[in-house]
């Protein structure tokens, strides 16, 4: 069995272990990946992140993350988030997207955000995502992201009422209370920021969970 087949087998086993845990049940990893790619292409012109929210978060990052120099944005579709963070922070920020369309947008790589590149380990000042609801295993996903965050860095999860609905495309449907419980299991919520309106209809009040390691200052 080659490496790729073994990886798919392990992830599929993990997906099956998620049954009855409030997550959408995929048959296997390939179904998850194909669903995400098809959803990405269908919604390719939709932009969730807004410039005023990214400007707000950039100000927070400057004030709370010492010597910030590198950030990641996960599940970014058209790459708007990383472009705006680069604009307001003036640093290197990359985005990830599981769909091959990633190559069509600046500063974006094709990547499953459940995985971690070696060079990211303990080497990222901040991670931002409004796509946590696209995770097939949110606990594993958050662990992967936090493994990249430096001791004094932060992870920012965006939440709106839309994140409560579990669908095939958005397998993790969760309330604010669910987010808090998941985060506080291993990490610390440093701040909860109320953002401006978000989403394609610009009518969704936004909450940002600022997450740190429990031993951070």
Mean pLDDT: 90
Question: Taking Cα atoms only, what radius of gyration do you get, to the nearest Å?
Answer: 16 Å
- What is the level 1 CATH name? Alpha Beta
CATH topology: Rossmann fold
> What gross morphology would you assign?
globular
Give the SSE order as H and E letters.
HHHEHEEEHEHEE
CATH superfamily: Vaccinia Virus protein VP39
Number of domains: 1
Count of distinct strands:
7
Number of helices: 6
Task: Explain this structure.
With 217 residues, this protein is an alpha/beta fold. It has one domain (3-212): 3-Layer(aba) Sandwich (Rossmann fold), CATH 3.40.50.150. The chain is 34% helix and 20% strand. It contains six helices and seven strands, in the order αααβαβββαβαββ. It has a seven-stranded mixed β-sheet with strand order 3-2-1-4-5-7-6, sandwiched between helices. Helix 4 (80-89) links the parallel strand 1 and strand 2. Helix 3 (51-64) packs across helix 4 (80-89). The chain is globular.
What labels would you give this structure?
217 residues, alpha/beta, Rossmann fold, seven-stranded mixed sheet, 6 helices, 20% strand
SSE arrangement:
Layout: H1 3-17, H2 29-42, H3 51-64, E1 70-74, H4 80-89, E2 92-97, E3 108-110, E4 124-129, H5 138-148, E5 149-159, H6 176-184, E6 188-194, E7 207-212
Question: Concise description?
Answer:
This protein is an alpha/beta fold and 217 residues long.
């Amino acid at each position: 069995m080659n490496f790729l087949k073994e990886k798919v087998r392990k992830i599929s086993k993990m997906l099956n272990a998620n049954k009855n845990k409030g997550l959408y049940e995929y048959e296997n990893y390939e179904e998850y990946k194909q669903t995400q790619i098809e959803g990405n292409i269908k919604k390719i012109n939709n932009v969730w992140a807004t410039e005023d929210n990214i400007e707000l978060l950039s100000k927070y990052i400057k004030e709370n993350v010492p010597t910030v120099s590198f950030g990641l944005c996960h599940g970014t579709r058209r790459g708007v988030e990383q472009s705006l963070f680069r604009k307001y922070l003036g640093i290197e920020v990359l985005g990830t997207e599981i769909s091959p369309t990633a190559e069509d947008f600046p500063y974006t790589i094709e990547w499953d955000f459940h995985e971690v590149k070696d060079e990211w380990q303990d080497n990222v000042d901040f991670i931002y995502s409004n796509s946590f609801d696209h995770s097939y295993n949110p606990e594993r996903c958050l662990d992967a992201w936090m493994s990249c965050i430096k001791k004094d860095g932060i992870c920012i999860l965006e939440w709106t009422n839309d994140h409560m609905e579990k669908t095939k495309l958005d397998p993790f449907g969760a309330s604010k209370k669910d987010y808090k419980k998941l985060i506080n299991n291993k990490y610390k919520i440093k701040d909860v920021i109320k953002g401006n309106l978000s989403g394609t209809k610009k009518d969704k009040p936004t909450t940002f969970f600022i997450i740190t390691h429990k031993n951070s200052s």
